[in-house]
Amino acid sequence: MDSTELINDIKTNVIQGRVTSDDEGFDEGFEGKPATVELVEKALADGTDIKTLIVEGLTGGMNIVGERFESGMYLIPDMLAAAEAVGQAMDILSPHLENAGVKSKGKFLIVTVKGDLHDIGKNIVSIMLKGSGFEIVDMGTDVPTDKIISAVETHKPDFLGMSALLTTTMREMPNVIEGLKTKGLRDNVKVLIGGAPTSPEFTEKIGADVHCADAFQAVDFTNANA
Amino acid sequence: MSEQFRDGVIVRDPFKRLSDDEIQILDKASKDILENLGLQCFNEEAVDIFSKNGCTVSKHDERSWLVKIPANVLKEAVSKAPSKVVLGARNPENRLILDADTPRIYFGSGSETNIWLDAHMETFVSEKDPSKKKQVAVYTQKRGNIERLCTAARLAEQLENLDFFIRPVNIQDEEITEDNHDVNKFYHSLNNTSKHVMAGLTSLDQLDNIVKMAEIIVGGPEALKENPVLSFITCTVKSPLEMVDDATQKLIEFSKRSLPFVVSSSPQGGSTAPIQEAGMVAQINAEILSGIALSQMVNPGAPVIFGSVPVRARMDNLHDMYGAPEFNQYNLDCVQMARYYRVPCYSTAGVGDSSVPGMQATIEKMFTHIPIAMSGAQYIHYAFGLLDRTNIFCPAQAVLDNQHIGMIKKFLGTPKMAEDDIETAMGQITKVFNSRQKLYARFTRRGLRDGSIYSHYPFEGDGSAGIIEKALARLEEILSRPVNSLDDDIQKRILEEVPGILNK
Q: pTM for the whole thing?
């Protein structure tokens, strides 16, 4: 298999949303065949050009997934499966990106705020952003405000995404923003917020940059500001 | 004929309203009615048959007789009714198997309404703020005719959750007479759907023509026995307890020819039957059993179906009232009584009092669809598109009912707990537990595509017009599909050999 075929195969597996060989695809007949992870590992071993692999294989595949989602052919699980495949491919490739001259689209620090253990939405946003080529720093759930602020200081992310499911816990969000201001970090990072009780009005009130009603809005905003 | 049937849904542990003791009480009450009060019978041949089979008959007045059926005679006759009835179809895959011992449910249409309700969307502008516009469904009532019957049958062919066709509109074209009514309603139904077709028979004189039509379709008399593509409904008893002349004669003829048919009774609680559950069920059960017994006296083993359509009167206008709790009680009890006698049950659900499609209609319909389905009634009619009780048929509502019945069939499906199901589940749980994101979404993909996982309500709207607008769009798409007609040579033969068909 030459590198063009291999990259095409990776692209196909991204479109199929197959992470590893035991995954089923969107279409029949893929189970048991090498999937994104195995093929990316092979590409690395073969010395395939990483930049081409990312642009044509992973991003190319995701573009088609996006089109299929827009057309209604794909549903959210198909989109997530493809994004997960790209995310895992990027984990394998990340130590080699600098040498290959590949820059990440940006760094995204994501967190569920203090007092809140809900992370389904946060995880979906993580998968989608990673699949779009962002570097993700996921701090998990119930993260105290001071830890978020020091992580922003340490990781210097381009974006900070905060999630809360409860009206009681979303009150932590303005504290984070105030903390960032106090430390002089606010202007260095775009702040995205999301979660059921949040709203555009709340976003404006606390001084965040954007309210995301779903993962797609987060992807759109970050891509527009990358 | 291969053993092909529509799947239906086999309901596990069907819902029971009556205890075994209560079934015995009702059985005894019905037998007491027939043994001690008897039936007023207006059909002389039936009186002779009852008499020859051990019943007591006496002249009631110049037109009728009093027939008293001893309990043992009734029991013996009813026990001869087959527990399994096959209803055929032009497409063998659409055949139905009604087995009294198996709670396999099928849903179908009915009844013979006079009004066809068309709908279209119009834009309305707010008087207060002309920039505000809203799409609103506007309805037009039309009379039933052959063209609309054909459309209804084409729709039935395409609705995947509709298992059998009882014409939902009457044909009222100017050219329709008593003589050509039957041939037209059966022909145009059979020419537009490959599913089973059932109907009442207007004129017994037309029975030979209807049978001839069916034989041409399936390939002769023997083939018709194997694959009865059509069947009949006969309402022999006018409640309370009057066995009428012409419907009883039809019962006798269907029985002699071993044509499948429903012995139906439809008393109205509060007017023609007691409104209280015990009295209603005791009476309707007696009425249906008298017809089943007669059919078996005529021809033991004749394929009959226990047809229960008990309704309740609305006491401010004496109309039937379907969206009533008592309706469910009566009907659930009848399903159990039919099962007790081991005769397949033709039951009733999906009728509402609302006169337009939408929320009220759907709530009322689901209020009966769900419990009756859970009871395991084999043959649930009236289930598609009826409004204003049984006076209006609305195709857009039939499209919505198809969706809702699909949801009910899905929820009543057999649980999948086999070894490989558990193995698959454990594989998923392990994989997700060991992953960073803890999401099962990817494992929904295949099921969403093949339909084994429910996707979402396809008619979501804004609560008023949205749902109807979407139902109309679906209806238009369905009716644009090719018609599954009879082969040209079969159509030609029928038109040549069966008189009276209007080739519209």
A: 0.88
- C-beta atoms of A81 and B436 within 8 A: no
Q: Which of A15, A16, A79, A80 to mutate to test the interface with B (most CBs of B within 10 A)?
A: A80
The verdict on a CB contact (< 8 Å) between A80 and B446 is no
Tokens in use for A192? 């995205």
A77 and B CB contact within 8 Å? yes
User: What mean pLDDT is reported for chain B?
Assistant: 95
Q: Are B466 and B460 in contact (CB under 8 A)?
A: yes
B58 at interface of A, judged by CB pairs closer than 8 A: no
Burial class (CB in 10 A: 0-12, 13-18, 19+), A200: exposed
Q: Report the number of secondary-structure helices (H) and strands (E) in chain A.
A: 11, 5
Distance CA B71, CA B82 (A): 19
The pLDDT of residue B80: 98
B305/B302 Cα distance (integer angstroms):
10
Question: For residue B348, is it within any domain?
Answer: no
Type of residue at B180:
N
- A107-224 maps to which CATH number? 3.40.50.280
CATH 1.10.1240.10 at A3-100, yes or no: yes
Distance from CA of A58 to the nearest CA of B (A): 18
**C-alpha radius of gyration, chain A, whole number:** 18
Spatial contact of A211 and A193, defined as CB atoms under 8 Å apart:
yes
Q: What is the pLDDT of residue B418?
A: 97
Q: Where are the domains of chain A?
A: 3-100, 107-224
Nearest CA-CA partner of B395 in B152, B201, B154, B222: B152
Q: Are the C-beta atoms of residues B269 and B326 closer than 8 Å to each other? A: yes
Nearest to B161 by CA among B197, B109, B115: B109
Q: Which residue has the higher pLDDT, A100 or B59?
A: B59
Among candidates A121, A104, A120, which has minimal Cα distance to A51? Answer: A104
- Token pair belonging to A27: 């279409």
Range of the domain at B429: 419-450
* Per-residue pLDDT band at B283 (split at 50, 70, 90): very high
Q: Distance between CA atoms of B211 and B257, rounded to whole angstroms? A: 10
For A28, nearest residue in chain B (alpha carbons) = B446
Per the domain annotation, does B427 fall within a domain? Answer: yes
Residues 6+ apart with CB under 8 A from B24: none
Adjacent-strand bridge partners of B15: none
**Coil vs helix vs strand at A119:** coil
β-pairing, B230-234 with B196-200?
A: parallel
Report percent pLDDT > 70 for chain B. Answer: 99
Interface test with B, best of A16, A19, A75, A112 (most B CBs within 10 A): A75
Question: B403 φ, ψ to 5°?
Answer: -65, -45
At residue B436's C-alpha, the angle toward residues B434 and B439, to 5°, is 85
Give me the residues paired with residue B41 across strands. Answer: B65, B243
> B96-99 and B84-87: which strand pairing?
antiparallel
The answer to whether residue B446 is domain-embedded is: yes
Q: What does the block give as tokens for A97? A: 């990106």
Residue B101 has φ and ψ, to the nearest 5°, of -90, -5
Of A23, A77, A119, the CB nearest to B448: A77
Per-residue model confidence (pLDDT) at position B53: 98
Q: Are strands A159-163 and A190-194 parallel, antiparallel or unpaired?
A: parallel
Residues of chain A with pLDDT under 70: none
The answer to whether A85 and A54 have CB atoms below 8 angstroms apart is no
Residue B437 lies in a domain: yes
Q: Measured on CA atoms in the order A110, A116, A117, A122, is the torsion positive or negative? A: negative
Contact B445 A24 (CB under 8 A): yes
CA angle (B402, B392, B209) in 5-degree steps? 85
Structural domain count of chain B: 1
